[in-house]
Amino acid sequence: MRRELQDLHSHPGFTALAASRFISNVGNGISPVALAFGVLALPGATAKDLSIVMAARMFPMIALMLFGGVVGDRFKRNRIVGGADVIGSAFAAISAISLIVNSSSVLLLALMGALFGVLNALWWPAMSGVLPEVLPKEKLQHGNAVIALTTNIGYVAGALLGGILVTAFGSGWALLVDAISFFIAGIIVWNLDLPTIVRQNVNTVFQDLKSGWREFISRSWVVTVVVAFAIINVAYESLLQILGPLNFSKFDNGPQFWSFNLAALTTGMLIGSVISLKVHFGRPLLFAMLIISATAIWDFSLALSTPLWISLICAFLAGIAIDIFMVVWNTSLQSHIPEESYSRVVAYDAFGSFGLSPLGIAAAGPLAELFGVSTMLYITGALTLTAALAALSVKSVRDLKLVRKA
After folding, report:
1. What is the pLDDT of residues 17-53, one digit of tens each?
2. How far, CA to CA in Å, does 178 sit from each of 95, 137, 142, 236?
3. 303-307 contacts: CB < 8 A, separation 24 or more?
4. Contact in structure between 17 and 74 (CB atoms under 8 Å)
């Protein structure tokens, strides 16, 4: 492993990119705990209010994702990423300060989330294309695994820190640390010294979207996995954003209990990164979709109100599966999709994979009030299990192998 790390370090920009992902994900680990319990602590707040705030970030992100893909293929990607992080830190700081001075509201938090979602629509397609500009194709699996490793270490630290900060000082101060982490990470990525890639492009935005669509739709394995994850992410985001916090909101130390679950999930992701760094997967998507189906055990453990240690083990195992899938999926896309259209294909991937998630988040709170949190957790687990296994009925998903381009 040391040799792989030294090799990756020799490529200019890689270490700085990994450092930026660690720093920003400390904030990302804090954010879901701080924001969820910050909303629930507002006077008269309900599960419906939590759904409104959490969905507000997702709707503009999905609506503008395809436009973000065009931008990512036209301009310098690290500047898009860095700029989005720096500007986003200001929106996070406004939310934080409003909570600290007790002048926050569901409307304000939803508005800041929506503005952050606009930036995410630019950030996501561009960020996924930065690593292929740093590393050669044959190093991408190792690079993705190490980036995931540093990301997950940051998220574990952030999730644990988030629970402590929210319990001891309140959600506002926790969100302020999140804002600072985004600002620092954005500056680092902005200043990456990457070679300028000349992209000769006289097409209109519509023409770019059309050509990106052709690249996306031409691969049945891409379309199948994206359709499956349209369902899986409805379940996962509903659990992560709404049902998990609601499940622990009845406890005085609920923020810490939920932060422990998030930390266990991300510790599992960390182990998944190590596995992905050392193991070559002969049929990567076959293995990845099988283990994704098994992540439903986390949903079921929460639905059954099992002891905390059981839900932590289930979250840990789910994290291993999720991270292996992400490394496999990113490497598969980076190996098969031409660089000049990569951000657009990733945008179609994100648009399809998360297109229904805002609706799931918006509905999860009201449905949990109507049918109960446990019932909704059984449903999210069943959706994940069914969608992941159904994707394996497509031969190109089962048989895909990684291609190393020269």
Report:
1. 889 989 998 988 888 888 888 898 898 888 888 888 8
2. 11, 33, 28, 22
3. 303/374, 303/375, 303/377, 303/378, 303/381, 304/374, 305/374
4. no
Residue 218 burial by Cβ neighbours in a 10 Å radius (0-12, 13-18, 19+): exposed
Q: Residue 242 gets which letter from DSSP?
A: I
The residue to which tokens 């050392």 are assigned: 278
Tokens matching residue 85? 């992080």
Q: How does DSSP classify residue 195? A: P
Taking only Cα atoms into account, the Rg of the chain, rounded to an integer number of angstroms, comes to: 20
Report residue 252's pLDDT band, with 50, 70 and 90 as the boundaries: low
Q: Render pLDDT for 365-403 as a digit per residue (tens, 0 to 9).
A: 899 999 999 999 999 999 999 999 999 999 999 988 765
* Structural domains of the chain, ranges and CATH numbers in brackets: 12-193+203-399 (1.20.1250.20)
How long is the chain?
406
Nearest to 231 by CA among 283, 287, 291, 293: 293
Q: Tell me: pLDDT of 345 over 60.
A: yes
DSSP 42: S
Q: Tokens in use for 43?
A: 């006077």
d(CA 274, CA 197): 31
How far apart (Å, rounded) are the C-alpha atoms in residues 12 and 18?
12
- pTM of the entire predicted model: 0.72
